[in-house]
Every structure is written in structure tokens, then in C-alpha cells.
Design brief:
By secondary structure, the chain is an alpha/beta fold. 33% of the residues lie in helices and 19% in strands.
Length: 505
């Protein structure tokens, strides 16, 4: 795969397709375009990181940061569910990383290994079907529509021409809560990005640490702290004090996955099949215009039914998750807003489940009293009376009421949820596209508005076939477009329509 040099200002040969973002979504787009095209394509990825495939999720080098689902869920090629599993076997990772193996046979590999897999798979496709994939290690700043497509300007002075522009900008950066605005953002006791392992590893072993946010990012921070033998007290605080649920049962075949010939006997399109399946009957019972309450009621009823048969709650919940991209567009706007305001946190702790290795460490720390989970919010920030830490005014939920208190912490680690809409506003390219009316927020104001084929809707609500948005930025349109399985599925599903437009069919 070509890596392009960057003169101060130049006009490069026109690529047919330009992908902004080189994380999982961007890599999947490039691979699927190459695999599905019948004609040669020039594909250019603009990504400031030197290695493609990392993005926010997979740029970590901490060996305690693992994929949150088994290998068969994570693949660059959703038509081949076992592609990553085979790669791990070929690389000898099963032997090199025995801690990845869980008792039920599932393997939860290191995220850094998945990043290497993505880069290698992309490299393997760099010249397939006469295509050419190149990487500009740069940041896209501006886009202008032209008579033949798009013109992109980069921070390094590049001007790139494209017939089709694909936005794969990934997850937005973490955002500190409002009380930490201003001077506190740069305070030495504040770690704004909970995935900054270098700063986490520099925390004093006996420090009292506050982790803001209770989701999987917080679990990653805990994995780093506990993995390096942190002995001081740790408090995880979120608005509701909820913890991600542990992973549930996995495919029974995983217990024999490493036996010779087993993979050859398994269907290769497991993930695509699951996403293409019709909406389950128990969810169809909610009607053609369902409400959030009706879907929740149907889910609870189904859980009770399968529980009587000895089946855990994760099975019907995953059926809801797999069908949500089809159900979500049927919900009225008021129902979508109700979900984001009241149920999203509950959904997330069941949806984004904790990897067993990290969950085990967390449960041990909870049992010893070293780790506590609080439901509360930071109201105000001040310097601690002693030491280099911070004094925080907190509003905490205790029993059935609220309790105000002041607590001192040596370090505050920000792991609050990803604010998709706010993050979009901080991206210079998306700001430029928005200012020109080429993109807009969806009606729920949770991401960018797109149609069923991921075509961006302009300010007038018109679909633009040569401008597409994929990945987390489509949250408001699809309800749950996050995670490798779903991003890969949406990419594979929409690429045929992209190619139809690119080739003028």
C-alpha cells in the first residue's frame, strides 16, 4: 500500500474514492470497495495516524486492553466471520497470549493485535482487482463540492480530488464535564482522556483516584490501573452508578474452535446473516409504529420466556440489538429522544458488556473494598487543601435521596461517554461541510443525518449519493451503529450502492 509524501501545496492525481478516517470504519470501507468492485478503483485514506486501523479504539498498546467480544465478532470482512480467528491462529497469538482464552472457549484478544490485523488485511487488499489503496498521513480540514465531485484540503497543504467522499471519522474525543472547564482542564491532577495509558501508568500507586463515567472506557482505565498493581482507593462515579454487565454465553462451538478442521465446517457469513435476519416475532409484536415502552415490554416478556427454558437474558437482548437498526427508523422522534434521555444508559450497560478478564479484576477490587461505584455528579472543583490533588463538591445518590459532600482526590480520570454531536462540531472538516449545508445533524441531534444507504442529507434534507457517512456518526439514524460487527455489516451492505454511483451504473 502506498504511503504518500506531502509537499507544501500540490495537486495530486484524482482518486475515484476518498475516505476520511483510517480507523476500523475507514479500513473496512477500503477493503469492501476493493472486494466488491468489478472495475479498478483508486482509493485514498486520509488519516493522521501513521498506522491505519487503529482509530481511538485500537490505538492502545496496553496488553490489558482487550476486545470486548470474541474473535468471531471482530473481523475486517463480515462475509467471513472467522477471518480474524484464522489470522490469530496463523500468527501464533493463541500461544503467545494464553490469557486471552476464557473458560467457555472464547478468546478476547488484545486490541493492539486487532489493529495489526486490520493493517495487514488492508495491505493484502492494496492491489486486488486492479485497485490502488494509498494513505495520506494528514488531517482533512476543508471540502468543496466541484463539478466532478469533491475537493479536499488538508493540514499538510494537500489538495485532493475525489468523485466520492466517504466520512469515517469514528468516535469523537472524550469530553470533560462542565465543572472542569477552563483552568481545571489542564490541571496536572486531571487526565482528560481516560485512554491515555502513558498518564495512567504515571499515577502514584497509592493515589486516591476518581474515574468519571462507568462504561467500557472506565473499564479500560481500571484494567490499566489494576493491571499495574495500583494499591490506592479508586472510585468510579457516573450519574446512575451502573456497571457494564459481564459477557454472557457464546457460541458452543468455540470450545472446539482450535481443533483441526473445525473452522472449515462453520458458516462464514454468521455476522451478516444475523444483521440481515428479519425482526424477531417478539419484537414485531410491538407493531409497525412501536414505542420504546412497547419494545421494552416485549423484551422483558421474551426474557421471562427463555429464562423458564434455562436461557440467559443476553440471548433475547442480542436479538433486539441485532434488529435495532431496522426498528429504530420506525420510532417517532419523540420516542427516540425518550430513549436517549431515559434508557440509553440502561441499554448501554447491557449492550456493551465487560470482557471477562477485566471483569474478574474489577470484581476482586470491589470485594476487597479498594474499588467503589458511586452514583453522582461533580458540582464544583477547587484545589485540595493539601497535596497536588483536587477538592470536588459532589452530589451523590445515597439510598433514596441526594447527599452533598466534599471529597479530595489525587487524580481525576475522565471516561465520560462519547458526545457524538458535540464531537462533530469540533471536527474542522465536518464544520466546513456543515457551514456549506452539505451535512446536518439528525433530528434527534445525536449524529449526522443519513438515509438508509448512508448518504448524507444536506440542509434541505436531500440525499447526496457522492457523500456518505458511516460508523458512530450515524447514531441518531440507526440507533446502534457502534461496534465492529455492526459497522462492518453496514459497510458491506451499502458498498454495492456506492459502487453503482462511482461507476455511473
Amino acid at each position: 500500500m502506498a504511503s504518500e509524501s506531502r509537499p507544501s501545496v500540490s495537486l495530486v492525481a484524482k482518486p475515484r474514492v476518498l475516505i476520511v478516517g483510517g480507523g476500523y470504519t475507514g479500513v473496512c470501507l477500503a477493503i469492501q470497495l476493493v472486494r466488491q468492485t468489478t472495475q479498478p478503483l483508486d482509493i485514498t485514506l486520509i488519516e493522521p495516524r501513521a498506522q491505519l486501523g487503529q482509530g481511538m479504539a485500537y490505538s492502545t498498546t496496553d496488553p490489558d486492553h482487550r476486545l470486548n467480544a470474541p474473535t468471531y465478532v471482530h473481523t475486517a470482512i463480515p462475509q467471513e466471520a472467522w477471518h480474524f480467528t484464522r489470522w490469530c491462529q496463523a500468527q501464533g497469538l493463541n500461544q503467545q497470549d494464553p490469557q486471552a482464552l476464557h473458560a467457555d472457549g472464547a478468546r478476547y484478544m488484545r486490541r493492539s493485535d486487532f489493529a495489526r490485523y486490520l493493517a495487514q488485511t488492508l495491505q493484502d487488499h492494496a492491489q486486488v482487482n486492479g485497485c490502488r489503496i494509498s494513505h495520506y498521513e494528514d488531517l482533512a480540514l476543508d471540502a468543496q463540492r466541484t463539478a466532478t465531485g469533491w475537493q479536499i484540503s488538508t493540514q499538510g497543504g494537500q489538495i485532493l480530488q475525489a468523485g466520492m467522499l466517504l466520512l469515517a471519522t469514528g468516535n469523537p474525543p472524550l469530553r470533560l464535564p462542565t465543572p472542569f472547564a477552563g483552568e481545571w482542564r489542564a490541571h496536572p491532577a486531571v487526565i482528560e482522556n481516560g485512554l491515555d495509558t502513558q498518564r495512567l501508568k504515571a499515577i502514584r500507586p497509592d493515589a486516591r483516584v476518581l474515574v468519571l463515567g462507568g462504561g467500557l472506557t472506565a473499564r479500560d482505565a481500571l484494567a490499566t490501573l489494576l493491571g499495574q498493581g495500583h494499591a490506592g482507593p479508586v472510585v468510579v462515579m457516573s450519574r446512575r452508578g451502573l456497571m457494564p454487565k459481564p459477557q454472557g454465553p457464546v457460541l458452543p462451538v468455540l470450545s472446539q474452535i482450535d481443533s483441526p478442521g473445525v473452522l472449515d465446517q462453520l458458516p462464514g457469513a454468521v455476522l451478516m446473516d444475523r444483521l440481515a435476519n428479519p425482526v424477531p416475532d417478539f419484537l414485531q409484536a410491538a407493531g409497525p409504529a412501536p414505542t420504546v415502552r412497547a419494545l421494552l415490554r416485549a423484551l422483558r416478556k421474551r426474557i421471562r420466556q427463555v429464562s423458564a427454558q434455562g436461557v440467559g437474558w443476553t440471548v433475547p437482548f442480542d436479538e433486539l440489538r441485532d434488529a435495532l437498526w431496522q426498528l429504530w427508523p420506525r420510532l417517532p422522534l419523540a420516542q427516540k429522544q425518550r430513549f436517549f434521555q431515559r434508557l440509553r444508559v440502561w441499554y448501554d450497560v447491557h449492550r456493551f458488556r465487560s470482557v471477562p478478564q477485566t471483569d474478574s479484576a474489577v470484581q476482586k477490587a470491589l470485594a476487597s473494598g479498594q474499588l467503589q461505584f458511586w452514583a453522582g455528579q461533580v458540582q464544583a472543583v477547587a484545589k485540595a487543601s493539601a497535596g497536588a490533588g483536587l477538592s470536588l463538591n459532589l452530589s451523590r445518590k445515597v439510598d433514596d435521596g441526594r447527599q452533598l459532600s466534599t471529597e479530595a482526590f489525587d487524580v481525576v480520570v475522565n471516561c465520560t461517554g462519547l458526545d457524538t454531536a458535540a464531537g462533530l462540531a469540533e471536527n474542522p472538516l465536518l464544520q466546513a461541510l456543515s457551514a456549506q449545508g452539505h451535512v446536518r445533524l439528525d433530528d434527534a441531534r445525536m449524529g449526522l443525518a443519513v438515509d438508509a444507504q448512508c448518504c448524507a442529507l444536506n440542509a434541505q434534507g436531500q440525499s447526496q449519493a457522492d457523500l456518505r457517512v458511516l460508523g458512530p456518526a450515524t447514531l441518531g439514524t440507526f440507533g446502534d451503529p457502534i461496534g465492529a460487527m455492526f459497522i462492518g455489516g453496514h459497510v458491506a451492505r451499502t458498498v454495492p450502492d456506492m459502487l453503482r454511483v462511482v461507476h455511473g451504473a
